[in-house]
Amino acid sequence: MAKFVFVTGGVMSGIGKGVIAASIGKIGQVRGLRVTSVKIDPYLNYDAGTMNPYIHGEVFVTEDGGETDMDIGTYERFLDINVPKSHNITTGQVYSSVIERERRGDFLGKCVQIIPHITDEIKDRLRTIARDEAVDLVIVEVGGTVGDIESLPYLEAAREFRLEEGAANVVNVHVTLVPVLDVVGEQKTKPTQHSVQELRRIGVQPDIIVARTKAPLKPEVSRKIALFCNVEESAVFTSQDMQSIYQSPTLLDEQGMGDYLARRFQLNGRIPRWDEWRRTLEESLHSESEVNIAICGKYAGLADSYVSVNEALKHAGAASNAHVNLEWIETDRFEKEPERLNVLSRFDGVLVPGGFGSRGAEGKIKAIQYARSHDLPFLGICFGLHLALVEYARHIGIHDATSSEFDSEAKNPVIYLMPEQNNVAAKGGTMRLGAHEIMIKDKTMAYDLYGRGKAWERHRHRYEVNPKYIAEFEAKGLVFSGSSDDNRRMEILELPASRFHLATQYHAEFKSRLGRPSPPYFGFVKAALKAKPRTLQSKHIISKIGASN
Ligand code: GLN
After folding, report:
1. Quick check: CB of 31 below 6 Å from ligand 1?
2. Which of 93, 430, 448, 491 sits most deeply, having the most CB atoms within 10 A of its CB?
3. In terms of domains, do 370 and 441 share one?
4. Model-level pTM greater than 0.70?
5. Are residues 185 and 90 in the same domain?
6. CB-ligand 1 contact for 356 (6 Å cutoff)
């Protein structure tokens, strides 16, 4: 029978609950448990696909084509598993199922209510995952912050769940923030106390408190939290700011998290095997050189909007013994003041990530043109491929080339709406989504990157390469080195004459792992390193857990 860990958050959002949930999963996994993770998002949207990444963070695409919360990406990267879309539960989905069943007549004669019908649906979904996937441990992260109206039914479900499954099978973890008042330098526990009070008022008593802090909790502060929050002293943990989020699992385990869980879940005699994780982590923390990458995008204001891209670049850097310095550049500015393109001369590589809509697109095209004409390594992702193709089309003389995403009446839409999208009006879950097989041509850069002729990568797009122009492009030096669906769809383009000018229709970042970087990202970072070798000068930036995950 599976064990469950519920992870709730207090005080405020954005403190890195996802990383802590994933770390707890890892602590179970290194003890030989089959682990999976679930993210509950109490909002009414059916999924994250229709939400603005600038506000909400990246839309993470799963292997089975779910448009999910970015925490799912964190779980995949920590646990090295593919998390199915059913693991991102939203209020939209829960209510839809219950209402659908009500219409069908499943509840005939009854008044359908939040308790028990909504809470039953929530618990059912968790039990189904545990049963169908035959896992030993399910980490359930409840999004939002305790005290939100929206998360109440989930906390109630968590309360009932523990009552039904028994305390030996369910552990509640509460993640809070312990701030330090600069004037006195004291770690303040009051916000944690209030948050736990609120949780207990709902009927959930945390077993474990994880305090997010700048520096380790002082012993007396730990004791105070234990006393006031009614948890064992050995169950108060610190999660302080770290150089890398991947240090989080061992940091918690060193404080006894694994021992506590083993005791509570009666899992005696399991030896944690951290060797491989530690080795990969150690390698990633020390670099001899550094590389400066410009990400030319639109959502530059929020690092979370492109978490997987950032992570994939870090993974590629770690595997190349290089620290990757990322800088986000709003491309609007290149449109108004083209001379500002010169800032790109400071960089060793240019990346244009996925995106939507025309704002900033001409600026991105200018950045790609700069990269191509200066032989600066370039990687384009999805929208980045579209714009790279438009840029190349203009370069070879199709001066009015564009994407029909910007102009549906365009004369030369080298990127066009996929034919199967013509009659699609609804926006939610209707793009071409999820993993598809890519066939890679021999003797190309792409083949060298993957080392084989096939790959499975994840997609999220409505527009693609217009086949009408393929022959013309290929006659003028561009190679489509990857394709899918019997060669109907172009998936990778490259310029063989360049150092590295490559773009993919898919989002390779979603499958990148520390220790196993995504091939296009790895190739790009290696090419950037070669372009301008630099020894490490700048100090590593301390990455705060909450800041990027
Ligand atoms: N806007 C483009 C499309 O819909 C690209 C999407 C993306 O970059 N994910 O096809």
Report:
1. no
2. 491
3. yes
4. yes
5. yes
6. yes
Q: Tell me, what CATH number does 420's domain have?
A: 3.40.50.880
Whether pLDDT at 182 is above 80: no
The pLDDT tens digits of the residues spanning 382-391 come to 999 999 999 9
Active-site residue set: 382, 507, 509
The closest of 446, 452, 453 to 504, measured between CA atoms, is 446
CB 506 within 8 A of CB 206: no
Distance (Å, whole) CA 469 – CA 493: 13
Atom of ligand 1 minimally distant from the CA of 507: 9
Asked if the bond preceding 116 is cis, omega within 30° of 0, the reply is yes
Whether residues 218 and 138 fall in one domain? yes
383, 416, 431, 436: residue to mutate for ligand 1 pocket, most atoms within 8 A of CB? 383
Q: Rounded to an integer, what distance in angstroms lies between the CA atom of residue 502 and that of residue 351?
A: 10
The pLDDT value given to residue 532: 76
Choose one of 280, 297, 316: the last residue of a domain: 280
Residues 144 and 189 in one domain: yes
Mutation test of ligand 1: which of 51, 386, 416 has the most ligand atoms closer than 8 Å to its C-beta? 386
Tally the domains of the chain. Answer: 2
Given a contact cutoff of 8 angstroms between Cβ atoms, the answer to whether 498 and 372 are in contact is yes
- For residues 334 and 222, membership in a common domain is answered with no
Domain carrying residue 497: 287-548
69 lines ligand 1 (CB under 6 A): no
Q: For 337-359, how does the pLDDT look when each residue is reduced to its tens digit (9 = 90+)? A: 989 999 999 999 999 999 999 98
Ligand 1 and 383: CB distance under 6 A = yes
Across the beta sheet with 378-381, what order do the strands follow?
322-330, 289-297, 349-352, 378-381, 501-504, 489-494, 479-484, 432-440, 454-461
- Domain end: 280, 314, 331, which one? 280
298 shares its domain with 247: no
**Which ranges in 286-355 belong to alpha helices (H)?**
307-319, 332-336
